[in-house]
Amino acid sequence: MSDDNETQGPILSMEGVGKWYGNFCALHDVNLMVELGEKVVVCGPSGSGKSTMIRCINRLEEHQAGTIRVAGHTLSANTKRIERVRRDVGMVFQQFNLFPHMTVLQNLMLGPVRNRGVSRAEAKSLAMHYLERVHIADQAAKYPPQLSGGQQQRVAIARALCMQPKLMLFDEPTSALDPEMISGVLGVMEELALAGMTMICVTHEMAFARRVADRMIFMDRGEIIESAPPAKFFSAPESERAQLFLSQILSH
Amino acid sequence: MDWLLFGAVLAFAVYTAYRVNDVLVYHWDWSRVAGFIVRRDNKTGHWFANILLLGLFSTLRLAWWGTVLACIIGLIMGACRASPNLTLRIISRVYVELIRNIPAVVFIFVFYFFVSTQLFPLIGLNSRTVNVPWTDNAIFRALFGPPGLLTNFLSGLICLAMFEGAYITEIVRAGIQSVPKGQWEAARAIGLSRFNIQRDVILPQAVRKILPPLAGQFITLIKDSSIVSLISIQELTYMGNEVANSTARVFETWIIVGVMYFAICYTFAVVFGRLESMARRSHR
Ligand SMILES: Nc1ncnc2c1ncn2[C@@H]1O[C@H](COP(=O)(O)OP(=O)(O)OP(=O)(O)O)[C@@H](O)[C@H]1O
Ligand SMILES: [Mg+2]
User: Fold this and answer.
1) Mind telling me how many Å the CA of B181 is from chain A's nearest CA?
2) DSSP A163-201
3) Which of B123, B124, B128 lies closest to B150, judged by CA?
4) What's B118's DSSP letter?
5) Which residue in A101, A231, B33, B167 has a CA-CA distance of 20 to 30 Å to B92?
6) Alpha-carbon separation of residue B209 from A212, B75, B79, B195 (angstroms)
């Protein structure tokens, strides 16, 4: 593949990306570069297009304008390659979306076995390794509905990590959790960040963002309004909309 | 209280039956009809199943193979119904709507004509071609009935399966669509192919939703199978008709046939109910 020069350039580049639902413009001229190892936190009001943007990165949604390049692949209607691209991009959802009819271990092994053709034994040791990293190796034989929300979300993180992705996407990973579960999940994400994982994370956990983010992205009405290091973003946001958003969210 | 009510209803039923008996002056004669269930060969002294019981076996064979075939049709068509491909959706939609909006009897007359006069001759199936050695053994007879009646049985079977397949299609579609969207997304996000998503993630979950209504549909199919008596498929209702006509014992015959249908349908209902509650208990 000619465009497989994965060693050079940013892991993700979005240029002039646009997306419409019918007449409604969900993304407008989105430009975003993410370097390997960078941690980006995305915030913005509800309906601003945060989910839409990160779902375009692994093509759960299809963009209609501009170009998206992920790990050296240009995203297009070519479906063969999309499964190859998704191997490099892990995703964690707000609602966990674990497979309820499989054990935790089976959830983790499915991707490596099916997509990467890893042997079952190897997939199992891989799975156990990542379960230990999210601190729930003792739950391997259980079914997801038997676990707490926090445990389920950590399984979901491990499931994504089992594909050994180059980039992890998080879409409000703690929004569906009870308050006492949140810190456990954020802790795992922080460890992941410290280990050097490239992350794009949609979250309203601003304390987490301050600790972990290299860069803050603020979105409103389908556009990236502001992109700044957290120190600057939290102390002196440039746009009025970001100021308003921050004053609302931080007063909570 | 419940028992009192039950007793009252029972007493009323017995009384009504008694009065009806009085008024109608109908002479019940069960023995002649009973001879059509099982009969004793006078020479050898062996008992053997007579046409009512044979009809019952034939009905059970129809129900079993009808369900298998209808499930295959339903699985394929149901997957088409829930598919993103427009052509497949239209084909399966047309099939379901056609069958749901035409009376079963009309559909079966039309389709039977097609099967027996067009389809079977086309593939060279007739009563002579099925009389080959491998059809003449006990296992084959148990599964498909007498070889001489095979074309008769098959045409009834195909009509029934086409008919019931439409309802199973809808059950399958509902099962597939009951799997939350997030499951598709999670499966796509870990890079599974369309085929793997269906096989590993969607179908196993859909099947759990599908099984209970499918069991109900199986029982419905047993009852619906009486329709194919109209195209001379020799199952229980057809045999009942024969017996009623030849003995003129109309009440006795049809009551026995009714009891037979009830017995098998109710047995299956109880068995499925047990299985279902067992499955629910074992499933966490
Ligand atoms: N499938 C869809 N069809 C039509 N409109 C959609 C669809 N998905 C999203 N939208 C619209 O696109 C806009 C952006 O949605 P998106 O989910 O990306 O917002 P968000 O920033 O993630 O919001 P939230 O914080 O509530 O999750 C919203 O106005 C939403 O109504
Ligand atoms: Mg969202």
Assistant:
1) 9
2) T--SEEEEESTTTTS-HHHHHHHHHHHHHHHHTT-EEEE
3) B128
4) I
5) A101
6) 43, 13, 15, 20
Q: Do B190 and A60 touch (CB under 8 A)?
A: no
Res A2: pLDDT: 42
d(CA A169, CA A93): 9
User: A143 and chain B: CB distance < 8 Å anywhere?
Assistant: yes
Q: Is the pLDDT assigned to residue A7 strictly greater than 60? A: no
Place of tokens 């050097």: A196
Q: Is the pLDDT of residue A5 over 50?
A: no
The CATH T-level fold of domain B2-282 is MetI-like fold (1.10.3720)
**What are the Cα distances from residue B259, in Å, to A101, B32, B265?**
41, 17, 10
Give the 3-state secondary structure of residue A80. Answer: helix
B219 Cβ neighbours under 8 A, 6+ residues apart: B265, B268, B269, B272
CB spacing of B186 vs A145 below 8 angstroms: no
- Cβ neighbors of A199 (< 8 A, separation 6 or more) are A38, A39, A40, A167, A168, A169, A170, A189, A192, A193, A212
Contacts of A62 (CB under 8 A, 6+ apart): A19, A56, A77
Helix (H, G, I), strand (E, B) or coil at A24: strand
Residue A1: is its pLDDT beyond 70?
A: no
Examine the pLDDT at B121 and tell me if it is beyond 90.
Answer: no
Ligand 2 centre to CA of B82 (Å) is 26
**Cα–Cα nearest to A155, from A79, A193, A98:** A98
Helix (H) / strand (E) element for B43: namely: none
Euclidean distance between the first and the last CA atom of chain B, given in angstroms as a whole number: 37
**Domains with residue ranges and CATH for chain A:** 12-249 (3.40.50.300)
So what's the ipTM on this one?
0.91
Cβ-contact A10, A198 below 8 angstroms = no
pTM of the shown model: 0.79
The pLDDT tens digits of the residues spanning B15-41 come to 888 887 777 777 777 877 777 787 777
A98 dihedral zone (left: phi>0; alpha: psi -120 to 50; beta):
beta
Q: For residue range B71-80, what is the model confidence (pLDDT) as tens digits?
A: 999 989 998 9
Which 3 state secondary structure label does DSSP give A10? coil
Q: What is the token pair recorded at B253?
A: 């015959």
Contact at 8 Å (CB) between B208 and A101? Answer: yes
Q: Tell me, what DSSP letter sits at residue A214?
A: S
Mean of the per-residue pLDDT values for chain B?
Answer: 86
Q: Are A158 and A150 in contact (CB under 8 A)?
A: no
Residues in chain B within 8 Å Cβ distance of A111:
190-192
The ligand 1 site (C-beta within 6 Å) comprises A 21, 24, 26, 44, 46-52
The two three-digit tokens of residue B160, written as one number: 């029934």
